[in-house]
Amino acid sequence: MKARRLPLVLALGLAALGLASQAHADAEGWRF
Asked: What is the DSSP track for the chain?
């Protein structure tokens, strides 16, 4: 049953990583 939830977990992980990298870029003063 967990295999069906895997894409959702990956999508959430990518979204969190994107937000974190963007916040870091804003803190550094530059953007990807």
From this structure: -HHHHHHHHHHHHHHHHHHHHHHHHHHHT---
Cβ density class 14-31: b for 16+ within 10 Å, e for less: eeeeeeeeeeeeeeeeee
pTM of the full structure: 0.59
Could you give the CA distance from residue 21 to residue 32 in angstroms, rounded to a whole number? 9
- The predicted pLDDT at position 15 comes to 94
Token pair listed for 26? 């804003």
Q: Which two tokens stand for residue 2?
A: 């967990």
